Amino acid sequence: MRYLPNSPRDRAEMLRTLGHRSIEELFSQIPEQIRLQGRLDLPGPLSEQEVLEFFKQAASQSTREYASLLGAGAYSHFRPAAVDALLSRGEFFTAYTPYQAELAQGTLQAMFEFQTLITQLTGMEVSNASLYDGSTATTEAVLMALRLTRRNRVVAARTLHPEHREVVATYLRHLGTEIAEVPYAASGQVDLAALEKALNQQTAAVVIQSPNFLGAIERFSEVAEMVHRSGALLVMAVNEPLSLAIVNPPADADIVCGEAQSFGVPVGFGGPYVGFLATREKFVRQMPGRLVGQTTDSQGRRGFVLTLATREQHIRREKATSNICTNQSLCALAATIYLCLLGKQGLRALAEHNLAKSHYAATQLAKVPGASIPFASPFFNEFVVRAPGNAEALLDDLRREKILGGINLERFYPELENHLLVCVTETVRKAALDRMVRVYQKFSSQKHARAAAPSGVSHPVAQEKA
Amino acid sequence: MYPEEFQYTKDHEWIRVDGDTGTIGITDHAQKELGDIVYVELPKSGDAVTAAETFGTVESVKAVSEIYSPVSGEVTAVNNQLQEHPELLNSDPHAAAWLIRVHLSDPQEVQKLMSSEQYEKYIREGESQ
Amino acid sequence: MKEHPRHARPHITRDENLIFERSSPGKCGVDLPSPEVPAESAADALGGDLFRRDIPGFPEVSELEVIRHFTRLSTWNYGVDTGLYPLGSCTMKYNPRINEVVARLDGLATDHPYAPEELTQGCLKILYDTARCLAEITGMDAVSLQPSAGAQGELAGILMIQACLADRGDPRKYILIPDSAHGTNPASVTTSGYQVKNLKSDAHGCIDLAELDRAMTEEVAGLMLTNPNTLGIFEVSIREICELVHRKGGLVYMDGANMNALVGVARPAEFGVDVMHLNLHKTFTTPHGGGGPGSGPVAVKKVLEPYLPSPTIFQSPDGSYSLDYGHPKSIGRVRAFYGNFGMVVRALAFIAANGAEGLLQSTQDAVLNANYVMRRLQDLFDLPYNEPCMHECVLSDRRQAARGVHTIDIAKRLIDYGFHPYTTAFPLIVPGAMMIEPTESASKQELDEFIEAMRAVAEEVERDPDFVLNAPHSTRVSRLDEAGAARKPVLRWKP
Q1: Is B83 part of any domain?
Q2: Does the beta-carbon distance from B59 to C486 stay under 8 Å?
């Protein structure tokens, strides 16, 4: 087997040293009754060529030929070649967690740079070296708020990613923590009046995503004061952090957390991704996850080490701030490299490019008879469109044109029947957008020609955009 | 080595009693075991403490230790120097790095503690159960 | 005359600035294509107070500078690619290059998790096949690939036990954990709401059956164990242990971190385990990446299958794959989407490349290598538990401690000989532990070099302990001030 560096002769010599006649003797302490009899039923062994063929075959049954307008917490952005080139260096990707600092200054310094970039983007004072993904980062932020306030109730916007809400619920179930949901208003943003009513003296955290799941950018200035007055902490979840290049992060948030997959990490069917969590310095000892700190060595040279480890599982054990062990180091490195490549100017330009394309698409779609943009709030690269008819049928038509036109929101919000969540990034060409609009137009005119039954039930938040 | 006017616990805290006030700290043995101390978590003035129960923690780089109160009572003072200078616990655990002062609710509790001689013997014999 | 330390690999001797210190205004490392659509004013689209004018301190550098900066940083790291990496309990084995190629294939790397299932059959097949292989390897009935890492797999497993017992109307309070356990075990238990009860190991470092009998009451939901344990020793009474727990109505969780000793040799389901997690980044060679991403699939017996995280992957009679959300008793999601798919691809590639024969040979080599190292070092280093080990062995610094030299110092000196240190100070039940796991990714020649280096250090401890205490001598930085870093944390660059 090509990965194994020992020859039969090596094995024989080692066995001789041990005084054994065969390798099986090394397993003699395992009782006979539980020794595996026979061979495992597994694929292979395959040559490298065959491995490649197997996966190429799988890759051919994919959406790689399609233009994708899918977002919802996983964003398709162009990944500069330099990202993979650097990630592929064996010293980066085959290294372990940097517990032995002298042999890991590369990883440690890169993570320190990641922490810095995240604080800059989020406007917070301190960031950790990443968490598993946006859903667990938001969950960890909530747990942190529970610890800090010693309260046991959470208020979450209904426009927080539905799967992220599920994860929070999984982690909080045994605590009996109430998770009160606040609906969205006609604008698509969180309903402020409802939020005010939902707050009480048991509220530990208020979690609001921005841009939210419906694409709406939230106004935190009105929210923060309300939240703090009740003694709760304000948690801002950001799952499309490219938006932070042109949208101000709230100065009054206590924790800003979310998903950094947009930065150089492939969409890859859902993972691995990279969560981030940033907060104020005064909360640092309650932060979960790894932290890299700057220090000096015995000769006074600058260096970096993992620090404040006493929060973590390998020391605190049952009293740890979290059970988390890994961070997402390689994905955080990808994000760091990506952000350095884009830099201040490139990130802004890319965000403006996304903004331009999504607004172009929305404007064109709004002109299609029967289609509308129901939410009036500002948006970044994602928005909701009400289909000029049955959303599934429309998606089928789009698919025939090799376009993945969006996500049918009814799946997550039953009241949003025949509404699609559409995401437009720099990866979608104008030609594809125009083709999409033509499909909508054709769909709409065919529907009118068929004089079909009235589409969709009218609902409180539907608005026709002029 | 270990001040005679102090009394000691099995968990390596010391207490100096003056009337119904006690000043509490950790012993030199404790700081040696912990290594470089980086952080201390202490209660606030007005908090209650209970004999043999924890009232805070001491952290080194690689370990966290609970601090157990030798007596019951109310915290009347906290050594705020330790926030900025936790290393004082390494350099001067018996004087400058006192942790808290407590108003004793039951001065009799002190009888159960060890004298300096008993404590020194206790450490020598390796704290075995 | 002092011995001249051998260098591990090239180091850049000058300081590397932070990228922010190399930044200067007006530079950019990418050129973007034209949007082709009319420009949209962000200030107008967002409104005054939302519009961000600047990101203070954000770097501005060219592509070349990014390449040079991170290339230089990488040369300060030691990876599995560099040399032997004998970290106990981590299984630092070779990360095959073909795995990196297949994980990056267009389609596999780019499919969106919400794309229509009919169009993502390739990805779904990979998830399905991997789950089936892992079930086969462990002997379990069902697998969820959703947990992001071992610790999350543990949490999922404990939550499933909790859900199952609640369903029976018998919620209990405690989980038993041996004192030799990895720190994630008690942390995961606490996160689930159970309380930890520690179980003292016996004189052989194994679970004490009498202790277990005493501790296993009807208030105990289960036992969380590692087999082989964290000393690298196989729990020979494992069947009795599981029977004991089951007899009192509890369930057995196995931490699968040490599966590198068992693949192809024994299957945890057959010794009575009800639920376990696997670390794809250990046994199944997905790269450690400097600390992640990992992947921690959880495997269960039929009794726990209804509680698995949702969705699972289902194969219809016509051969097509789909996501099955129909699990009303599921513990819910432990993360968004389906798990670390990119790591699943790599693990499946590894399994398929090896086949059953290759996996068995890997296990055998791992165990052979560990025993060889243990045998050839036990005359110079204390062996606290003189039992045959499996894929890892634990020595201790007891003899060297008499000269004032401890496990961490020996580890630091080992760096000068070109090796990454072993795991220091774990498991906690061995004071001064030195945990060595060579894995199968070590030739006899490399092992001999490692053994020779360890023996040389042992000799230095006797002859010149100070030299060992001040190691490493050959790295660019040495003995970083960890206390200072913790007292006055500096966690970000500031201009």
Answers
A1: yes
A2: yes
Average pLDDT, chain A: 93
Q: How far is A99 from chain B (nearest CA, A)?
A: 12
Q: What is the pLDDT of residues A408-445, one digit of tens each?
A: 999 999 999 999 999 999 999 999 999 999 999 999 99
Entry pTM: 0.93
When divided into structural domains, chain B yields a total of 1
Per-residue model confidence (pLDDT) at position A326: 66
**Is A310 in CB contact (< 8 Å) with chain B?**
yes
B34 in a domain, yes or no? yes
Question: C110 vs A295: CB contact, 8 Å cut-off?
Answer: no
* A29 pLDDT above the threshold of 50: yes
d(CA A401, CA C364): 54
Stretch C334-342: mean pLDDT, rounded? Answer: 97
Q: Mean pLDDT score of chain C, rounded to an integer?
A: 94
Rounded CA gap, A318 and A321, in Å?
9
List of chains touching C (3+ CB pairs within 8 A): A, B
Chain C hits for B37, Cβ within 8 Å: 483
pLDDT of residue C1: 36
A311 to chain B: nearest residue by CA? B64
**Within a domain: residue B1?**
no
The alpha carbon of residue B59 is apart from the nearest alpha carbon of chain A, in Å, by 7
The pLDDT of residue A308 is above 50: yes
Say whether the peptide bond before residue C427 is cis (omega within 30 degrees of 0).
yes
Instruction: Kindly tell me the burial class for residue C217, based on how many C-beta atoms sit within 10 Å of its own C-beta (0-12, 13-18, 19 or more).
Output: middle
Q: For residue B38, which residues of chain C lie inside 8 Å, CB to CB?
A: 483, 486-487
Contact (Cβ atoms closer than 8 angstroms) between residue C83 and residue A34: no
What is the maximum span of chain B, computed from C-alpha positions, in angstroms?
Answer: 38
C193 — alpha (psi -120 to 50), left (phi > 0) or beta?
left
Nearest Cα of chain A lies from the Cα of C354 at a distance, in angstroms, of 5
B90: closest chain C residue by CA: C483
Angular region, A218: left φ>0, alpha ψ -120 to 50, beta rest: beta
Question: Which chains have 3 or more CB–CB distances shorter than 8 Å to chain A?
Answer: B, C
Interchain proximity C152–A132, CB inside 8 Å = yes
Contact C493 A112 (CB under 8 A): yes
Q: B118 lies in a domain?
A: yes
Q: What pLDDT is stored for residue A314 in this prediction?
A: 62
Pairing type for strands C195-199 and C220-226 reads: unpaired
**CATH of residue B43:** 2.40.50.100
Tens of each residue's pLDDT in chain B, 129 residues: 899 999 999 999 999 999 999 999 999 999 998 889 999 999 999 999 999 999 999 988 877 889 999 999 999 999 999 988 999 999 999 999 999 999 999 989 999 999 999 999 999 887 544
- Is there a contact between B119 and B8 (Cβ–Cβ < 8 Å)? yes
Sketch out chain C's domains with CATH numbers. Answer: 99-352 (3.40.640.10)
Best of A286, A298, A310 to substitute, by most chain B Cβ atoms within 10 angstroms, is: A310
The shortest CB-CB distance from C265 to any of A33, A35, A68 is to A35
Calpha distance C356→C364 (Å, rounded): 12
Q: What is the pLDDT of residue A316?
A: 62
Alpha helix ranges (H) inside B35-115 = 81-84, 88-91
- Alpha-carbon span C438 to A381, nearest angstrom: 49
Confidence of residue A175 (pLDDT cuts 50, 70, 90): confident
Reported as a single tens digit per residue, the pLDDT across A192-240 is 999 999 999 999 999 999 999 999 999 888 899 999 999 999 999 999 9
Cβ-Cβ contacts under 8 Å, C340 against chain A: 271-272
Could you give the domains of chain A?
Answer: 81-338 (3.40.640.10), 343-450 (3.90.1150.10)
Partner chains of B (3+ C-beta pairs under 8 Å): A, C
